[in-house]
Amino acid sequence: QVQLAESGGGLVQAGGSLRLSCAASGRTFSPYRMGWFRQAPGKEREFVARISWSAGFTYYTDSVKGRFTISRDRAKNTMYLQMNGLNAEDTAVYYCAATGEFGSDFRYWGQGTQVTVSS
To answer: Do the Cβ atoms of 26 and 2 come closer than 8 Å?
Structure first.
């Protein structure tokens, strides 16, 4: 069974930066891809970014392109989200997720970490 744990959230002023981490644990961990999602108050959870675990290919939602960078360290079974130029619209609970070894459905989810951007 795979377990994911996010860390690195917090309160930051507009224009500031945060780096989120997602540590994976389990007997074997080799997902097809991992991703970050977020859910703002009163809104549905939305996709933020994803990365293929093996090749490192990345994809971002338009609203974070040029500001956020997703990366992974396979040796540490950890994924990161570097967030720069934060604004109030980025305030949300951020979740990391992982697929199984095959397929693109995200089946494993972390508990989430709160990111609050003050304007």
So the answer is: yes
pLDDT tens sequence for the chain (119 residues) = 899 999 999 999 999 999 999 999 987 889 999 999 999 999 999 999 999 999 999 999 999 999 999 999 999 999 999 999 999 999 999 999 999 999 899 999 999 999 999 98
